[in-house]
Amino acid sequence: MTTVTLTxxxxxxxxxxxxxxxxxxxxxxxxLVAYVAPNLESADKSFAFEPPKPGSVxxxxxxxxxxxxxxxxxxxxxxxxxxxxxxxxxxxxxxxLLVSTILLAPLFVVLALAxxxxxxxxxxxxxxxxxxxxxxxxxxxxAGLWCERSGVVNIGIEGxxxxxxGVGFTFYAVLGxxxxxxxxxxxxxxxxxxxxxVGLLHAVVSVSFRVNQIISGVVINLLALGFTSxxxxxxxxxxxxxxxxxTSAISLWPLTEIPVIxxxxxxxxxxxxxxxxxxxxxxxxxxxxPWGLRVRSCGENPHAVETLGxxxxxxxxxxxxxGGLIAGLGGAWFSMESTGGFQENMTGGAGFxxxxxxxxxxxxxxxxxxxxxxxxxxxxxxTRLQILNVEVGDFSIPSEFWQSLPYVxxxxxxxxxxxxxxxxxxxxxxxxxxx
Amino acid sequence: xxxxADAVPVIAAHGITKRFPGVLANEAVDxxxxxxxxxCLLGENGAGKSTLVNILFGLYQPDEGxxxxxxxxxxxxxxxxxxxxxxxxxHQHFQLIPVLTVAENIVLGAEPRSGLRLDLRSARIRxxxxxxxxxxxxxxxxxxxxxSVGEQQRVELIKALYRDAEILIxxxxxxxxxxxxxxxxxxxxxxxxAQGKSIVFITxxxxxxxAVADRITVMRDGRVVGSADPASATPQSxxxxxxxxxxxxxxxxxxxxxxxxxxxxxxxxxxxDRGSTTVSNFDLEVRGGEIxxxxxxxxxxxxxxxxxxxxxxxxxxxxxxxxxxxxxxxxPRAISEHGVGHVPEDRNKHGLIGAFxxxxxxxxxxxxxxxFARGFVxxxxxxxEQATSLVERxxxxxxxxxxxxxxxxxxxQQKVIIARELxxxxxxxxxxxxxxxxxxGSIEFIHRRIVEIRDQGVAVxxxxxxxxxxxxxxDRIGVLYRGQLVGQYxxxxxxxxxxxxxxxxxxxxxxxxxx
Amino acid sequence: MTLxxxxxxxxxxxxxxxxxxxxxxxxxxCAIGLxxxxxxxxxxxxxxxxxxxYTELLKGMFGSKDRIxxxxxxxTPYIGAALSVAFAxxxxxxxxxxxxxxxxxxxxxxWVGTWSxxxxxxxxxIIPIVLLAxxxxxxxxxxxxxxxxxxxxxxxxxxxxMLNSIAVFYVRWLVGSQDxxxxxxxxxxxxxxxxxPDAARLPELVSGGQPLHFGFFLMxxxxxxxxxxxxRTTTGFEVRMIGANAPAARYAGVRVxxxxxxxxxxxxxxxxxxxxxxxxxxxxxxxxxxxLAVGFDSIAIALxxxxxxxxxxxxxxxxxSMLAGAPLMQQETxxxxxxxxxxxxxxxxxxxxxxxxxxxxxxxxxxxxxxxMAEAPVSAALGGTP
Lengths: 435, 515, 386
Known about the structure:
Chain A is mainly alpha-helical. Chain A contains 16 helices and 7 strands.
């Protein structure tokens, strides 16, 4: 009997992902309790719920950061301990870790406040700002959702939005001098249609010509960049129009009458409100209508769908163009709502963050929306913290750190929390009709 | 037998010809289906049966020829035309969407609506009605991916019946059923006929044809080569028609001379992709110079078992020993280098790299060793010499060794894999579904080679869903049922019925056989 | 009997045969022609003369010895970056992060080159050190998506796109920060790194201040290296196995995860050395922003060349020359240089969707031609010619 042992692989880890995350939280919590909290100044900071008004004190919640940080740290440690207790407590530990993750956001704000000079910050505004900044991400995610649910990978959401932003603003500048009114709405429509046309291009190239869908997306991004930059330098700039009127806010009376938060939340710009409508409709249509059922089926098993006599190609075209239209609305947000103007490469990677939000949401509308809002939050937080001018010791944290925050969060989300999310089964595979 | 001999046939196809790039799939095929009959289409893989029925179902359009439905000329441009004319088809590979429910799968494309909404409630009710009417028990709310294979087949049948199909085309429906389930299935088919349906039944299983057919049409190489009367046909006569020459149905092999035990498996426990136990308490011993065949319906843990033995899937319990060396947790490469050959069940997905040349595929697991490489650098000439020699020895039909492997026929692709594995120094050979989808000539060749390697003293483990193959090749037989080895038999003493029972319900006591 | 177009092995006679086999080259040439044709429609739409525009463009690209040098010099980083993308493609990976890897490699090289420790060493010592710094920087940055993909299955497209932006932000900070000063050259008016010592500079190939430097030959050498690794080594074989059929590779015993990490590190290293050679060869310092868009363009170039190491060279030269020649066109006709970008995107479109070109120009597809780039599922590589 030989004593040779063959090269073995590492044995399957008994210490799984849950335990690792729990351990990390536990360590982090320990650090908070033992090191961070004691070193914070004990002062009164507050979360305000409304903007400062002359003559009255805004509604707010005051607290001592040391206590909050300490308490949160303890919670993290407990969550970590529970996760290491074994499978019987798995549901508890999942819940605890989920709560811990949600607590990270306010913890961050509290820490920032503690390390800065200012006394407080308006959290309602922070949340509303997150929603607002999340608008393009949510719209982009919905655009991607329709495409991918039908089985067509779309990494050209960025290009779709950029093209719509550029073309839309070009119409606005040329026809309406970018000065508001009817031409603004017309241009938003033009942006939406541009998105649809780019979607049509993606469909033709990847569905009919069966080009690799990622390549098609790359082509769209390149074309959009070149084309919109060209439009800008040849058409917009020569007219001397760099900025113009953006959409004006609408007020949703009577909801604005709600005390404290009413005005902050329900008075906002149109595309922002449209976003909620789009997400709701997407959810309803995808899951409760026959067409939605067919779209989902095309994304899972197109051949099965074909044997039932349904035209897969037609459905994919419809879904991709619909996605393009939604992306067009997202593009309009950039150049005609968020600001009035068009800069080169204005979307700056938003389309890819939208894609990340989609994956975060496992290709479902409301979870993807939640993902988009998460990224919106990290951007809003970044700006807010920049205003607060957070300093650690003598070191002033540079603005680039906050700007890069959403991107880091995206990586963590895609790699850490989600990992192997399962897309629609036929996603990315070109479909050939039997002849 | 309820058909009126002079009545207009329900479906008639005249002179159907269909070409695909490089192959003439159907040539001047005539086919008729009478009302109320079960008409079996018999032929080897590649004979053109699937092509013909896909044309009947509207998925393909014929290049020449016409179709008649009850005497009227029809032209189907898509399957929805065929469905509208009352034709339904159950494909060999189920066309179901795993993440959707039974009801959703059934109504897709013919969805009941209430306003703009999808009316799943009435869908459910209708499915339950049909289920009762035809004796096809199924839960409309269950997700398809959680169903057993037999249940999925029922969903496919209801799918066709939901669309008021009068003519049913069944493509190799029994390929995935246990012998017991097959009998149940035949009862369902007869009941459908009793309720007025007409059935086209495709199969390559000779016994079944004789058991259930009213008429038999035999196809070969794209043409109809004859018909047979089930009352007088024998498996032998049908096989001869199918292949065109006399066929040896039972391989001629010498008795085995088993030596020492080379493969020992004890208490093996393996999980599937979802983490559920798929193989448990698995004990096995295979000696050098014998073929141990594992019979069983697919889905009882065969794949996971083979993957565990070859290092692709680390078991969570138990031991595997090969020639005295513990290989339980070894890497695939270590196991392969230790002398274990592996012919995987999915040759395209795991056995070959289609885009690579035949030559490269022949060294797919030894490209890094002498003489095919020196250190990091590959030696092309050595690879090509090996390839030329193997192509000749194993009679691999290919235009050249530098052709991409995907251009070879299925039989020749499998020969490449066999050549690659069998030309190495082996202690143990694991073969899974070696002749699936192959023509009789290739099957004979591969069986002979497996027996040859056995005679060289290698311990051969054969895993196959084709009971005939297992019975014909194995010196000893075991049955895999729900991940456990139930029953072990000596090849000569194995009783087909007993094994069939074990495959269906795991015991030889036929109480509560719920298959 | 005709040999198939995808004959992978280079016997002498087969090489010659393939050299004369124009068919795979015909499609890109027609695609370029078609793209320029559509470009002229755009030019007409803004009221200019296409013939004049293209003439100026061509003059700008190749009109004089200086201009040719400028074109080649401009193309140099694209060759290395496209090689990075192409190498990753072979394993079925989309390395969209080449831009970030390029930047990080350049930054690390710019930083290491200014270390006083090596400041007095002769060129033959210091240049390899600077280049290796680029390799290390790019390689480490490529390891991140590689490890994440191998360990968690995170799709490298998203991760690398995010890493690109992160790299841009952090490099901007590192180079621009004045309080504290990290990499910034306080003597310069713009935010840029301290200049490398003269010995660390790759020699010019053409005198007169044109940006053509030794890095060009370095990139050509890398092309040969990549070809050799992919076609002649066991590791390259494994890379191609994974790209063609990852499950089969696993069955054949390949440690797929390990190879994936190796591929991403190598791809990052290739991009990194391209960045380092640019810093060393052109200006001697890093001005962040100068690499903008090299990343995405090199993806296009790799696709244009169908991931073939040698085809990358003419494709990159075409690409870089167009960008180098565009300013002359802008100067003479007033047309924005973005027009060139539009044409480039169209070229890529027509090469990718070669069906369009084939139909218009009636180029028939050869019987046994593998064009998997056109029809491959997302995770499969571009197979075919080495």
